[in-house]
Amino acid sequence: MTTSPADIAVIGAGPAGLAAAAAARGRGARVALLDSAGRPGGQYWRHRDGHNPIPASLRQDILAGHAVWHVEVEADGFVLHTTAGEVRARTVIVATGAYDRQLPFPGWTLPGVFTAGGAQAMLKGHGVPVGDRVVVAGTGPFLLPVAAALRHRVTGVFEAGSPLGFARHPLAVARNPGKLVEGARYLRALHGHRIPFHTRTAVVAAHGDDRVHAVTVARLDRNRRPVSEREIECDAVAVGYGFTPQLELPLQLGCDTRLDADGSLVATADEWQRASVPGVYLAGEVCGVGGAQLSVVEGAIAGAHAAGARPRRSLLRKRAALRAFAAAMHDTYRVGAGRPADDTIVCRCEEVTVREVRESVVDLGATDPRGVKLLARPGMGLCQGRVCGYATACLVAEACGRPVTAADLRGLAARPIAAPVTLGNLAEGVEDA
Amino acid sequence: MDVLVIGAGMVGAACAYHCAAAGLRVTVLDRGGVATGTTSGGEGNILVSDKEPGPELDLALLSVRRWRILGERIGADRLELEHKGGVVVARSAPALAGLADLTGRQRACGVDAVDVTAGDLPALEPNLTRDVTGGAHYPQDMQVQPMLAAAALLRAARDLGATVHTGTEVRGFLFGRDGAVTGVRAGSGDRAAGWVVNAAGTWGGEVADLAGAPLPVLPRKGFVLVTEPLPRVIRHKVYTADYVAGVASDDAGLETSVVVEGTRAGTVLIGASRERVGFDRRMSLPVIRELAAQAIGLFPFLADVTLLRTYLGFRPYCPDHLPVIGPDPRVPGLVHACGHEGAGIGLSAATGHLIAQTLTGATPDLDLAPFRPERFAA
Fold this sequence. Notes:
Chain A: Keywords: Oxidoreductase. Chain A: Residues 7-299 form the FAD/NAD(P)-binding domain. By secondary structure, chain A is an alpha/beta fold. Chain A has helices spanning 15-26, 56-59, 116-126, 143-150, 170-174, 177-192, 248-253, 292-306, 313-332, 354-362, 369-376, 389-400, 406-413, 423-427; strands at residues 6-11, 31-34, 62-63, 68-74, 77-82, 85-94, 98-100, 113-115, 134-139, 154-159, 197-198, 201-208, 212-220, 226-233, 236-241, 243-245, 257-259, 265-267, 280-282, 345-347, 352-353, 421-422. Chain A folds into three domains: 6-99 and 244-331, FAD/NAD(P)-binding domain, CATH 3.50.50.60; 102-241, FAD/NAD(P)-binding domain, CATH 3.50.50.60; 345-413, BFD-like [2Fe-2S]-binding domain (Arc Repressor Mutant, subunit A), CATH 1.10.10. In chain A, the strands form six sheets. In chain A, strands 1, 2, 3, 4, 5, 6 and 19 form a seven-stranded mixed β-sheet that branches. At the A-B interface, α11, β22 and α14 of A face α5, α8 and β17 of B.
């Protein structure tokens, strides 16, 4: 399928993409809003049928089921190669969002261990709770809505950091009173369901044969080392250590990237949400994880500017306040890979252990995650490092005795094929096949 | 005497290992990491099948023998060395006639080449297209996992006393009064050496320039496609008879002649494109589309298989498609082991062995004259 070129193609129909498309359309641009999923909303607005929050004005612009697997730059715009055909546009707004960041611990690959986002998606999208005695663990404010939604099914929430860290950032908090109210509301909900909320505590192991039946939780000292452990019975675990922005398309386009405060690789955006590559805009988590509200504001700025209008000053002020809050949040909930035992699996696709990663450095002389990937195969399997990339980078950097760099993460995030495509699909249109 | 090897890729690793095993004191320098250059951009071919009779085939036959020895010494598992054999497929009467002519001449040189009828090909490769006119089976063709093989040889060299310094770029050479090389100027300081081996692969020309002994080594870009993991559905290294013509071609434009094979990890690798576009790292959709179409032509079931990723590399080629191996008479102390084009993994074992023989004063198993560095002088 090849249609006439759109003025603006927005990739990703989550909060940032929907806001970008609405802003651009409101200023008269012809918009194509692409999403890999069957219906818009992204990870955040994941509603069941009949609960669609999408404005009617946008519905005709939405190309659902269009997973973009490659972007080509041409003289007068961009060609988006999708699983449902080509889409051409003069300007591209990348709003591909983020997915759960995972850190390996013994037992994390057991059935019954979910990502926090995965557990939330099952509940919001399908109405299915992941278990009846769920341990929610990891770090960051996202654990609260996940636990609040699962309500009485939650055995306990184990936060590796502590929200008290926000006390170090009084200005950022004061500029975002709504965030404080939101957090308090969730904590009150947990309290109402008698769900214990533990800080500076992490799940360090999951136990079970064919399915998780218990976890070991540990109190963490100031250096995040486990000090006292106890076992808790459960039938499911929802773990989230923040989010990893989905950067395949910005990297394919050659956009500049940087290391953000939360340790993620993000694409660099200017004040109008423009990437370093002409014609490319960025909105939402791809330019820094900050939540749905920030994504909406960035999307509105990107969409307006891409359509040739000047974004309202109030949007810029709002963005500054929300970014300050995001920075405070990242500082409060710091993430490190910890020191998982040697036989812990890092890459579940290829079943690569922590030991094999460390040996690639120590024995075989690898000096960066890409080298380790080529020698020990973490990130070589079906998920192409989307799950294990961050943890691999942390483990390699630790084995090399240095901090993780942007180049480390770039080496694992660059994927010339951004979404699965069959060879038959690829070969379509080639003569003399 | 001390040997300094520039390049920690497959050829540098083989040189380091063989020199260390011959009792020489070896230091390896690489500006990047272990096996992160062209070694990481290939498929790990150890082929005799794709070579016309001549010096390169002689080198390949020696290398097959040396790889067997390496497999025994270091462990085939640690190299992921597989004696999988190659199958060449002809899909027209002229192609089959050309292939039969080639196998006849290869057999005369000692290659184990078996002509196979169209009816017998399915027994070798059950999932191969039936639209074939015949083929040939080459039991000597092998495969290694190239990064693992290079890292394992460097590890073995270290066990024999060699030292490996990654992230260390050579910026210049040091010369004695007589003009002979006495060492290199590296990022980490000067390093003395009796011999400096240029195993810088595609960047071998740059290193040769630093020593004042130019070599015409240029990049020839190639893509490889990697599918999702599958059960063992492709048993050999399978390619079309056009591949031999592509390898030897002097055409500057894009050429694709497909090579398809399974790996131990279950993925299927699909190569090989050849383009002379300098060090252009950009993805090229037309190239990978063409490779996908050709692979489906050989194995129709691949149409429904998912592409997982693509990667690319830059083969180091010389105008006559032969590598440069041996001492450089223009600069005493400088020794070359580069320019192996797309066959560096396969030819590395023989190259390292011959370099070690040369540096220890032994008579090389093969006449190095066809590979001499000064052959390009106008």
